[in-house]
Amino acid sequence: MKKILSVKNLSVSFETYKAEVKAVRDVSFDLHEKETLAIVGESGSGKSVTAQSVMRLVPMPPGKFVGGSIIFDGEELIDKSEKQMESIRGKEIGMIFQDPMTSLNPTMTIGKQIAEGLIKHQNMSKKDAHARGIELLKQVGIPNPEKRINQYPHEFSGGMRQRAMIAIALACNPKILIADEPTTALDVTIQAQILDLMKQLQEETGTAIILITHDLGVVANSAHRVAVMYGGKIVETGSVEEIFYNPKHPYTWGLLGSMPKLDQHDEKLKAIPGSPPDLADPPKGCPFAARCPFAMKVCGEHMPEHYELSDTQKTACWLLHEGAPKVEPPEFVNVGGSKVNG
Amino acid sequence: MAKYLLKRIAYIFLSLFLIITVTFFLMQIAPGSPFASERKMTPALEKQMEEAYGLNDPIHEQYLDYLVNALTFDFGPSFKYVGQDVMDIILRGFPYSLVLGLEALFIATGFGILFGVFAALKHNKFGDYAAMVIAVLGISVPSFIMATILQYIFAIKLNMFSVARMESFADTILPALALATTPLAFIARLMRSSMLDVLNSDYIKTAKSKGMSQRIVTYKHGLRNALLPVISYMGPLVASILTGSFVIEKIFGIPGLGSEFVTSITNRDYTVIMGTTVFFSVILLFCVLLVDIIYGIVDPRIKLDAKGGEK
């Protein structure tokens, strides 16, 4: 499959009064056509900033690119002017956001919000854009689209709004869809519907998806590949099978272990003790070292390199060094089991 | 919509009835009489005067008379100026206040919104700080100081306008500026903060992610939403500005409604006090209604229907 997006050694920082917060540090990943890449991590791990950097939507200042490159379709996005980016956003890369209640303009009809992009990127007339809008709403499963298109966001329910957001993002058939926690703010029943919809639309249109989430259940259901982020870095990447059945990074173990399981009734929920590192003053070594039950002396001092375990799986952990003790994932991780529940 | 309007107008009449009633009885409770002045009148003369103006009738009769007459905008004769009706006084002063007020309103909203948007777009840069320092000055400097400064600079030093005259359009510029300063500064601050709020909202990010240019994002998606708080401030502002400012009218020698109102109080000219109060209320109530209607047009989330209205 063709590579359409390649992020190499991307570092993004934010200038604050106190210090420079290094939100994304040396992140690299590729995205292929028709593939769904999930970026998983807890709050503050840098996953949203990574995604918004691809769209160049990180406000600058206070944000700034410290280094790295983002190659889309053979072109460097970091060097593009704001004007050039405008013809990429919406047209080549679409984006949907976490909270559908606030991400639609309350004083503009859904139809106009869909039409805007079509008129700008595809030079459609207002009439054609309106017709295409109805088609799109039908495609994302909104009943009665002829009537719905002239309504305002407040007349839509949460799930319907997220469907409308997807229609907006996919209006111009973008090559990449970035979904920034698209189901976090929705009811569980609606979550599944939205994920199914995204999967179905991906099959129809062939869009590659970057799915940002902290919910491993979502990942198991819809991603092909997974990148686990922690402390602004990608600590492990692999195919979804590798991450769920053969995880190698203790943080991934922790994430899998902290998923509640159906067959355990009397136990407390598992958590990873401690809190994520302060990215204004990130640790020298592995960002997870302070919370890692298997941490060695070297972990706090030096960042481990990415060990290639297969063509797809890469893990940044000193435990994989030949001199390190052999550690098995703890029992509670229940490797692979979470896929059943997810 | 028609049902909604009817209902609102009914409410306006109810409010007016309450306002008239309360002012009427407050006037009755207030000590002193319009004829109590330094120069003592003979009791016989005073009695005759009270008889002539119907002040000896039982209170409920006076009140009912007043209510009925008020319906036809007849607020009775002035106690102070013989032969003048309250309505004559209001209609004499109001045109001046209206012209001045409209001008000031135009300046205040136009420049207020402009400065506010400008400051928000230059957030935390020099332009923002400069605009906001001016706004704070505008709010904190009282209008009478502003008025005298304007007179000193533009009328006396630069000789561009007359100090205090009310003949041509040029004469209205200085007082309108002085009148506009405070609301202008207030609107600028209001506009800035609501624009900043809106520009940080998710739907602005959505608009950007669609590839809309900064200009379209700011004006098409941002401005309309950011205007809402300003619109709700406009109702009382329009009413108070249209009915004139005593201070500004005194300083610039304008025979407007504001000075009539204050003079009537010092004169204990009861009918004029009540007449102007009711007049002010009518304007305020209709301005508020107008604002609600505009609000409903700008913000589709607000439904104008008979079922109790907003939200």
UniProtKB/TrEMBL annotation, chain A:
Superkingdom of origin: Bacteria
Keywords, sorted A to Z: ATP-binding, Cell membrane, Membrane, Nucleotide-binding, Transport
Topology class, membrane: Peripheral membrane protein
GO CC terms of this entry: plasma membrane
Compartments, as annotated in UniProt: Cell membrane
Chief place of localization: membrane
One GO BP: peptide transport
Xref: Gene3D superfamilies: P-loop containing nucleotide triphosphate hydrolases
NCBIfam families to which the protein is assigned, alphabetical: oligo_HPY
Family: Belongs to the ABC transporter superfamily.
Full protein name: ABC transporter ATP-binding protein
Automatic annotation (TrEMBL), chain B:
Keywords: Cell membrane, Membrane, Transmembrane, Transmembrane helix, Transport
Presence of keyword Transit peptide: no
Organism expressing this protein natively: Compostibacillus humi
Family: Belongs to the binding-protein-dependent transport system permease family.
One cellular component (GO) term of this entry: plasma membrane
Annotated gene: oppB
Transmembrane segments: 9-30, 96-121, 133-153, 173-191, 230-252, 272-298
Domain ABC transmembrane type-1: 94-295
InterPro entries referenced in this protein's UniProt entry, alphabetically: BPD_transp_1_N (IPR045621), MetI-like (IPR000515), MetI-like_sf (IPR035906)
Subcellular location per the Swiss-Prot or TrEMBL entry: Cell membrane
Main localization category: membrane
Source taxonomy: Bacteria, Bacillati, Bacillota, Bacilli, Bacillales
Protein name: Oligopeptide transport system permease protein OppB
GO biological process, alphabetically ordered: transmembrane transport
Membrane topology, from the record: Multi-pass membrane protein
